[in-house]
Backbone:
């Protein structure tokens, strides 16, 4: 590696960079305790970093929220593979939705020693999907209503068509009868 890059890298405070990241980010140990958290996570949860760091999942999240995260973290520690889940953070003002990525951090012996959790806020997308689903449902209702109307109009049209066809048959039958009577009359 270039010595200039190494020198520059040594002067970068990576924690400051992570603190300024817009996505919530944390590291957790095998006991599900937070060993690091950035400002974005504290803001998303509405608590301070001091409350997060050193505490475990169950002290920060609801039981269900903690259990879902625990299962993902446990899988990463056991398999060494990244795990992605979708989670909800209930808030009085409305739920927040996140895609969470749990990535393993390995030591020199290739053993998972920690997990980094990165959350991507997808609340706006989820709200748009919910709104779209409502519109789709409304459109399906409208299509159903229009289909019923069309079926009724088709039945009415078929009834009129049958009336006209029957009328034409009666007219033809009357014409044939008139012709037959004309022939009888002209023979006499």
Residues:
């Amino acid at each position: 590696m270039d010595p200039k890059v190494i020198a520059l890298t040594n002067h970068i405070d990576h924690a400051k960079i992570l603190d300024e990241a817009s996505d919530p980010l944390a590291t957790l140990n095998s006991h599900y305790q937070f060993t690091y958290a950035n400002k974005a996570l504290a803001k998303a949860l509405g608590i301070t970093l001091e409350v997060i760091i050193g505490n475990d999942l169950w002290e920060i999240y609801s039981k269900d929220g903690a259990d879902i995260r625990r299962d993902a973290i446990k899988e990463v520690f056991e398999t060494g593979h990244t795990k992605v889940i979708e989670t909800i953070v209930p808030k009085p003002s409305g739920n927040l939705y996140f895609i969470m990525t749990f990535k393993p951090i390995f030591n020199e012996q290739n053993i998972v020693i920690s997990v980094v959790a990165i959350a991507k806020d997808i609340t706006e997308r989820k709200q748009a999907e919910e709104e779209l689903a409502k519109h789709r449902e409304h459109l399906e209702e409208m299509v159903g209503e229009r289909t019923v109307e069309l079926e009724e109009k088709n039945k009415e049209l078929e009834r009129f068509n049958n009336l006209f066809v029957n009328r034409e048959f009666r007219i033809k039958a009357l014409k044939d009868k008139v012709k037959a009577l004309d022939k009888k009359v002209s023979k006499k």
Q: What stands out?
A: The longest strand covers residues 96-106. Strands lie at 25-28, 34-37, 83-89, 96-106, 112-121. The CA atoms of residues 72 and 136 lie 33 Å apart.
